[in-house]
Amino acid sequence: SPRISDLSYLIASTIGKVELETVEEGLETKIIGDIVDRAISNVFAKYTEPDEFDFLLAKFEEGLTVLSGSSISDDEYLETIKDCGILEDKLISLCNPMADSSAIISALEFILEGLYLGSKLSKDSHNSTVKYSI
Fold first, then answer.
1. Interatomic CA distance for residues 123 and 67, integer angstroms
2. 40-73 residue pLDDT tens
């Protein structure tokens, strides 16, 4: 399943295909990134409730950090999900009862990014890895 962490490649590939007339040269990456962020925020708001992930935010307040990106193995993601109690049930409800592990991991990245864009988590990017924390 496609992941939120894959969207950075969308930005790079879109720049060569879409011509944007901007005030300043070189703002295309920021503009396309902002469009992607807004799309994620809109979908997150449509399919989740404002306090639906308070239990997950409480885990972050207790010191949880989550690494995300193409270099993170499925097993690492699944271990994080297992450590967060009812998170797996929430992820499955976002996908469907028959969701495979890749869809569940994709849903986790979606939730983390939605919480970040809603200013509930912080995000630190380094190379191809992102660290979510409070």
1. 10
2. 999 999 999 989 999 999 999 999 999 998 888 9
Domain boundaries, the chain: 1-134
- What count of Cα atoms within 13 Å lies in the side-chain half-sphere of residue 49? 7
Taking the C-alpha atoms of residue 105 and residue 82, their distance in angstroms, rounded to an integer, is: 12
Q: At what angle do helices 7-15 and 28-47 cross, to 10 degrees?
A: 140
Q: Which of 63, 68, 44, 57 is nearest to 125 (CA)?
A: 68
Tell me the one-letter amino acid at 89. Answer: D
Nearest to 110 by CA among 24, 16, 13, 42: 42
Q: Rounded to two decimals, what is the model's pTM?
A: 0.84
Among 111, 75, 69, 71, which residue's Cα sits nearest to residue 91?
Answer: 111
Q: How far apart are CA 102 and CA 54, in angstroms?
A: 24
